[in-house]
Design a protein that fits this description.
By secondary structure, the chain is α/β, with parallel strands linked by helices. Among the domains are: 4-199, 2-Layer Sandwich (Alpha-Beta Plaits), CATH 3.30.70.1230; 208-324, Rossmann fold (3-Layer(aba) Sandwich); 501-594, Serine Threonine Protein Phosphatase 5, Tetratricopeptide repeat, CATH 1.25.40. The protein is built from 23 helices and 14 strands. A hairpin with a 5-residue loop joins β13 and β14 (299-308).
Length: 594
Amino acid sequence: MATMKRSLTAILFADAVGYSRHMRESEQLAVRSIVFHISAIKHLIDNAGGTYHGGSGDSVLATFNSVRDAVRCARTIQAREPAPDDLLDIQFRIGIHIGDMVEVEGELHGDSVNIAARLEPIAPPGGICVSRSVYDALRGEAEFTFISLGRPNLKYVGEDLEVFAIEDADTTTRSGDAGTAKLSKAVSLRSSRYARAQWLQPGPQQPSILVRPFAALGDDTQTKFFAIGFTTDLISRLARYRHLDVIGRASSFDVDASALDASAAARVDVRYVASGQFQIIGTKLQATAVLVDAQTEVVLWSESFRRDLDDIFAVQAEIVEIVAAAMAVEIDRVELEAARARDPDNLDAYSLVIHGRLENMEDGATGRTATDRAMRFFTNAVELAPSYSSALAGIARAHSVRWRFGWSDDRNKSMENAVQYALRAVDADQRDAIAHAGLAFVRLYRREHDRSLAAYEQALRLNPSDVEIIASYADALKHYGEPERAVPLFEKALRLNPLRPDLYLSDMAHAYFLQGDYETAIRTIHQMRQPLTAQRVLTASLMLAGREHEGRREAEILRRHLPGFSAAEWCKIVPDRLPEHSAMLQEGLERAGF
């Protein structure tokens, strides 16, 4: 059984400023520079008695037994020596919080990491923001000067967390050339005040969810401990979906867990409520999870689980992943349906993005008009919220679709625009998994296969439960030339998504096709509700499997749907890294007369 350690810990989260922009300008220089800075920061953490827990390439997560040591270390990081002349002098923002942490085999769990990560973007470049708990621990000490920034509505944290900036007591100025960063008291205060004014602006009205403490049936300590840990981990996992506003753990645990109705949710103003219960009987765990509409009290989704308790932490992780993924998919479905009923002339940024996503841009018959409509929705959303990463990613996707199907006067310009908006989406929110996945999708169709996979892997580190990203990553692996690795991921996406989208089946069928398993590809396509999107693969599979009569019949359907379709031209668009894979599809389609 995995060992678990629970402690009250000071958490430091630091993130590089403008790293995606540096990568865009010079990838090699950016990578060499970030490696230098992260190495220097790790050394400072070690010297301060902290523990480095890794990061995502351009970020740092560390813990300290002493909050004083954490803040001192943060100030040392921000005042460190500049980089050599041949490297970029990259600045960092830092957030610090004190909270209850659970460490399992070196991995940190709990809400406290999320809070520290939410504090970091508030700080100006070169600055430090801390939570009220840090302020309470250090106030009155002459060494530190705090400036209250009020109670911003931080995503996934709740609305009652007061935030403080730490003023640099030394008013340190780092001198150098024009590219060298400067950190001073005046800059810190001006930047913090600007950030606070930004908080007051209304953001996208995203769906919100409260996870009520899962109930423990029985009096045994193990079940109660499991229920508390599961609730905390589910909050943390749902918080990775940037389109969901998740009520923080403190507010969640104030709500009565025994009531099944959603009326208690009114106190925290949410649209959805998650709840459930656990019971351990011998060596078996029985669990139920429920998602409820907070306004109508209608049960939207529920699932029961029965598992052996060979490894309680592995069981918890498995159920958390399934529940988080299914709830996110169901909320997405409900929000999409609700968007259809909204007045298109009176929409906020979030609703505009939803309307854009409703457009079936890749339908060969009506996709061009749908893509134009989607582009208008996403563009209007960006006008309302210029840094809304989901809207920027939507524009990138629309430009990419225009490039794929030749629906623009200048295809090269469409691809340039797709890259530009995908990078803007990542810059707008570096921890938005969807933004990284959007960049990965664009890179795939630019045939930058390694960079595409790297971007998808970063997206999965940010949100390993997002089924759309899992399926998209599988698609990229398939095009990379590893369809055998892709199939298990498609199966996982289908298992986690109760809606079983046709796209997953279509792409999985293509993976079987590329392995030469034409019969399984055909059976997979026949499971689709609307198999038209897989018509090319179905036709080619039937022809190569020797079922030519059926293949020619499916080819006629394809001709009616896409008049003038050319196998050779289409296979130039399909982003297969291996020429023999594109040749397989082209051969099957050409045998059918294309």
